[in-house]
């Protein structure tokens, strides 16, 4: 399978990591039991299917050229048992126990000398529900690529993967870093265009940077601990709200997050800050049918209207801001800071990562991201998938990341927080559900909500 240079943005994620700031994505997939399917059977199935995904056999090694670079290489000593393990949940409430345990497991950085991923089978009784926690380093996968890689464990996709492997064609082949000579001219022209865009983004970053860094619950020093909480929303109700109010489903969810933060801050006795918290909203630059390798990300910056008391006013503010972002495009504005990473030399990533990590707070306060999932029903060993909660990494100096995915008629929300800064994360998750329900009743039921002061 050879080697493959890490793309510039992948290299940036690799060097941004520290013990207190692990840079892995996560997902907690919850399955309903099926007759005759036992935990040992599921564990072996996970190991067999994970081992069949070529990308999961790759690890990162430094290279001589380019100076400061690194490459994906096949781990000749790959042992899937190092990566796929079983952990038990003792609590009577399975979801509460699985969520607590997943938060603890998300604290632990991935081993640097091994393929940077882990899977944990979380389960208790043989005839009860179980969960699979997947951890993938951000250098290995962005949200869409994580879905593509992780999908290989499901029954519906694994069969296709197995047939492809049997024909001798790996389902996820590594991309060679050596271009075809016929592509060189086109790449050069594209590179010139990208450098020009990067200069514009750089100027936007400087203008958007904030020197008056406020200390809030979700912008606190890191303790190295992680806590996970989940929320579930009705996807059908979401579409009803969208039809009634306009905008996109993502606009509505961003407005719900803003309202939930307002509710949560009020419960804590905190008045809304003078300036609304700023969210980084990632945007995929991956084209349909494009190459699997390499993170392809940009982002928008959005001031969450926490200061607005009326839910409809919050939604209008989000819609207007997102419309402006979309009109400018994902390659412009300070939120497109990832575009800069694609232009930097590997040495800049290797030695500049600490500076870049500390600068994150100057641009945004928290991350809110949506992860697309397949629309078809999924299962593992015949056990149907009932929910999948995505989890995003925390930037340095930040304490909260919110990720959302839609599956099976539900919007599943995964909230990841610094355990010391946000010990009441469960209340924020509850506020997400309450805010969504309040907006649903306001739009479809005619209720006039009492503003949260």
UniProtKB/TrEMBL annotation:
<comment type="pathway">
    <text>Lipid metabolism.</text>
</comment>
<protein>
    <recommendedName>
        <fullName>Diacylglycerol O-acyltransferase</fullName>
        <ecNumber>2.3.1.20</ecNumber>
    </recommendedName>
</protein>
<dbReference type="InterPro" id="IPR009721">
    <property type="entry name" value="O-acyltransferase_WSD1_C"/>
</dbReference>
<dbReference type="GO" id="GO:0004144">
    <property type="term" value="F:diacylglycerol O-acyltransferase activity"/>
</dbReference>
<dbReference type="GO" id="GO:0051701">
    <property type="term" value="P:biological process involved in interaction with host"/>
</dbReference>
<dbReference type="GO" id="GO:0019432">
    <property type="term" value="P:triglyceride biosynthetic process"/>
</dbReference>
<dbReference type="GO" id="GO:0006071">
    <property type="term" value="P:glycerol metabolic process"/>
</dbReference>
<keyword id="KW-0808">Transferase</keyword>
<feature type="domain" description="O-acyltransferase WSD1-like N-terminal">
    <location>
        <begin position="6"/>
        <end position="252"/>
    </location>
</feature>
<dbReference type="GO" id="GO:0001666">
    <property type="term" value="P:response to hypoxia"/>
</dbReference>
<dbReference type="InterPro" id="IPR014292">
    <property type="entry name" value="Acyl_transf_WS/DGAT"/>
</dbReference>
<keyword id="KW-0319">Glycerol metabolism</keyword>
<keyword id="KW-0012">Acyltransferase</keyword>
<dbReference type="Pfam" id="PF03007">
    <property type="entry name" value="WS_DGAT_cat"/>
</dbReference>
<comment type="pathway">
    <text>Glycerolipid metabolism; triacylglycerol biosynthesis.</text>
</comment>
<dbReference type="InterPro" id="IPR004255">
    <property type="entry name" value="O-acyltransferase_WSD1_N"/>
</dbReference>
<dbReference type="Pfam" id="PF06974">
    <property type="entry name" value="WS_DGAT_C"/>
</dbReference>
<dbReference type="InterPro" id="IPR045034">
    <property type="entry name" value="O-acyltransferase_WSD1-like"/>
</dbReference>
<feature type="domain" description="O-acyltransferase WSD1 C-terminal">
    <location>
        <begin position="294"/>
        <end position="439"/>
    </location>
</feature>
<keyword id="KW-0443">Lipid metabolism</keyword>
<dbReference type="GO" id="GO:0071731">
    <property type="term" value="P:response to nitric oxide"/>
</dbReference>
<keyword id="KW-0444">Lipid biosynthesis</keyword>
<dbReference type="GO" id="GO:0005886">
    <property type="term" value="C:plasma membrane"/>
</dbReference>
<comment type="similarity">
    <text>Belongs to the long-chain O-acyltransferase family.</text>
</comment>
């Amino acid at each position: 399978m050879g080697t493959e240079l890490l793309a510039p943005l992948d290299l940036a994620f690799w060097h941004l990591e520290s013990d207190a700031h692990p840079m892995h994505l996560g997902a907690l997939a919850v399955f309903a039991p099926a007759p005759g399917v036992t935990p040992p059977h599921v564990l072996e199935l996970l190991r067999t299917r994970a081992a069949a995904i070529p990308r999961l056999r790759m690890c990162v090694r430094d290279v001589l050229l380019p100076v400061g670079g690194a490459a994906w290489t096949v781990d000749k000593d790959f042992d899937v048992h190092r990566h796929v393990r079983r952990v038990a949940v003792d609590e009577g409430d399975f979801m509460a126990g699985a969520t607590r345990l997943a938060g603890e497991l998300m604290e632990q950085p991935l081993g640097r000398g091994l393929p940077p991923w882990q899977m944990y089978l979380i389960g208790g009784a043989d005839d009860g529900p179980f969960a699979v926690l997947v951890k993938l380093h951000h250098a290995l996968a962005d949200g869409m690529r994580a879905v593509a890689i992780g999908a290989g464990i499901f029954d519906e996709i694994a069969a296709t993967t197995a047939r492809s492997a049997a024909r001798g064609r790996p389902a996820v082949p590594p991309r060679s870093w050596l271009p075809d000579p016929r592509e060189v001219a086109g790449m050069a022209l594209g590179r010139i265009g990208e450098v020009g865009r990067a200069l514009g983004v750089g100027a936007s970053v400087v203008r958007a940077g904030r020197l008056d860094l406020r200390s809030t619950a979700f912008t606190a020093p890191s303790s190295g601990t992680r806590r996970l909480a989940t929320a579930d929303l009705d996807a059908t109700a979401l579409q009803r709200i969208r039809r009634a109010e306009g905008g996109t489903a993502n606009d509505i969810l961003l407005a719900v997050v803003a309202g939930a933060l307002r509710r949560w801050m009020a419960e804590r006795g905190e008045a809304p800050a003078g300036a609304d918290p700023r969210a980084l909203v990632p945007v995929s630059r991956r084209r349909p049918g494009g190459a699997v390798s390499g993170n392809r990300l940009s982002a928008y910056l959005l001031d969450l209207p926490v200061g607005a008391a009326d839910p409809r006013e919050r939604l209008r503010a989000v819609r207007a801001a997102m419309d402006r972002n979309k009109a400018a495009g994902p390659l412009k504005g300070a939120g497109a800071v990832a575009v800069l990473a694609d232009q930097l030399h590997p040495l800049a990533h290797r030695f500049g990562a600490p500076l870049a990590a500390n600068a994150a707070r100057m641009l945004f306060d928290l991350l809110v991201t949506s992860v697309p999932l397949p629309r078809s029903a999924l299962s593992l060993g015949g056990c149907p998938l009932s929910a999948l909660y995505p989890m995003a990494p925390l930037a340095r100096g930040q304490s909260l990341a919110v990720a959302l995915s839609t599956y099976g008629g539900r919007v599943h929300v995964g909230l990841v927080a610094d355990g010391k800064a946000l010990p009441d994360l469960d209340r924020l998750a509850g506020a997400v559900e309450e805010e969504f329900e309040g907006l649903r009743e306001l739009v479809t039921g005619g209720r006039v909500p009492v503003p949260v002061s």
